[in-house]
What does this fold into?
Amino acid sequence: MGRLLIVSNRLPVTVSKRSGNLHYDRSVGGLATGMASLEHGDQLWIGWPGLSSEKTNTKDCQKIKTHLKKEGCVPVSLSSGDIRDYYYGFCNKTIWPLFHYFPSYCIYEPKLWQRYKRVNERFCEAVLDIAEPEDRIWVHDYQLMLLPQMLRKHLPEATIGYFLHIPFPSFELLRLLPWRMEILQGLLGADLIGFHEYDYVRHFCSSVHRIAGVEHTLGTLTVEDRPVRVDAFPMGIDFEKYAHAREDAKVQAKIDSLVRKMGRRRIIVSIDRLDYTKGILHRLEAFDWFLTRYPKYRGKVCLVIVAVPSRTRVESYVDLRRQIEHLVGRINGAYGTMDWMPISYMYRSLPFDELVALYNVADVALITPLRDGMNLVAKEYVATKVDPDRHGVLILSEMAGAACELSEALVINPHHKESIVEAIHQALEMDPEEQCSRNQRMQQRLSRYTVQRWARDFMDSLEQIKAQQQKLASRKITHSIRAHLVESYRQAQRRLLLLDYDGTLMRFFTQPEHARPDAELLTLLTKLCSDEKNEVVIISGRDKETLTNWLGNLDLNMVAEHGNWIRRRREQWQCVEGMVHDWKIIVRPIMELYVDRTPGSFIEEKDFSLVWHCRRSEPDLARLRTHELRDAVVHLTENLNLGVFEGSKILEVKSIASNKGTAAERWLHQEHWDLILAAGDDYTDEDTFAVLPEDAFSIKIGQGGSRARYNADTVSTMRSLLGLLTGAVSEQHDTSTTCSV
Ligand code: GDG
It folds into this structure.
């Protein structure tokens, strides 16, 4: 396996130049902290080191390169103009506010967009300079949304993953962006696109559908024949690092000193980059209210605010800093006494030992972003609350991605000041046992789904989608396979053709009754049937009346209702007999697994069926799980006489007398066939594919996993292939060379 190339705007090391000397510091922020905790395999990190090209001479550049190389980093050089227009401009004045639901902060300037494109190209060149065929490339965050597609253009076979660390907004927001199409296309260059939570996946898929017209199935989109996976990977933290931090003597010393300084005062902590999305002003206003409403806490609590400097050149950030400092001053002025200040404010980044010491001593963490992709601070705070004293209460905004996993926190709406005030009060009054039990439950989850597990899951998914792509590519019907089929067909004296109807010979219609065979199809089938070497069987899920009505005049065999009814050529319809009941012991545990994974769902048991109901579950999750469950059940029960039916918010598995496979077997075993050709498009056709001998030509129409040997794109591809066999279409005129997955 090749190396892992991590590409992000900033490197985990920040270079600065002070008094002519170069300095190297750890970068701050969620991405840098999270990724720094990963196991270091064979990896390289590509990104901007934080110093503009104008500030470095050739000698500096060489020194920086050499130093960073030792740290596994490759610098991308950016000029001050790039930083102004790309980073401070398009990234932080357009994408950041828009994706965080602050459209009024957005500017849409073509000049900034052009620079964003150019800088993405620069990153692309930097990756191309070092990438090798076996490498896996993992692109991070909103600054590089065009990069996956740029890389794909140069490296069509490359393994490319992309992870967005901020929210993905709903279509209603994204549509405001003049360059929304380019952004989506840029992302779709990746093989796997990851988000923190399922809502962002949903927003992304819906935007891709509405803007680019690409639909998804089970979170997989098909982009120019290439399956692209979209999924949620909630980023975790290095749990052990935070849980055991106080065992370090330096951290313990900081804790002791803080405890001495604070005495018996209760500490409420608030730590974020100074950013308008973090809701710092709302939080301060709520604290102000709290002191008014609960005067008994005056002199007894202290709000420690750490605002880490961020994007200091963007006006709205400068403005926000001024407003925060003004409000801190006002509150301290209004309530402070000679020996007590309600707010202790720091505008700087703390060293790690001070940060975790603060987490450790804080009675409450007040984390109330107005919108946040995930929020790692919330998770880190909870992780430090381990033995001997698990006390501490997390107050968390429901607008943070982390709220999905930390439901035992006091979850509030950050715009509802009243609820923040009450949550502070509830937190300070909470019984210590309840604090422990809430923290313990959150810790169980945080210790399982760590940042290491997050990265591993992402890389595993990336490998899976790559394997799926390779498998599908190997099933393309190439010219030589087609030629082989035509030759085998010509030579065969007896041929069996098992053909599904809807989605295989006829495209889908919104109204199923509109799928009546057209003249082209009737001619094709007539031609196939008129060759006495052929035995044509239409195997369909349709009822027998419709089949009789549509195809009854042709000299062919028909199977209706997925195998329950059979009509041999020139005979009457016959019902198939025999039911099985002992399949439930196999199917029930799978359904139970899906009940566990899908809150609100349940199982209903009937004499001959098991029904999984999901009407009370979250609709998008229910849809995804229904598909997954159906696939799981179909694969497991393919040789049993079971039907799997999707109804309105239900999935029913029931005994049926036969399936398409058992029906097909009636012809398969009837005589020796020189050639067997089977085609179908959905899971019910998998039953047919399952019973075929190895040398049969089996074709699945459309994408997705299948037991069929080959894949054909569409109904018209399938029709032209059949036309080729009958001689109605010649190889030269066959335009279906795109027969593919
Ligand atoms: C973005 C998304 C998403 C903070 N102050 C200090 C300090 N930190 C560290 C924390 C934490 C990280 O920085 C902040 O991460 P967050 O997740 O809270 O927020 P963003 O920086 O906005 O991160 C966010 C994240 O990416 C990951 O995908 O969760 O939604 O906006 O790890 O510990 N570290 C030190 N001193 C500080 O003063 N040493």
User: Anything to note?
Assistant: The CA atoms of residues 35 and 451 lie 8 Å apart.
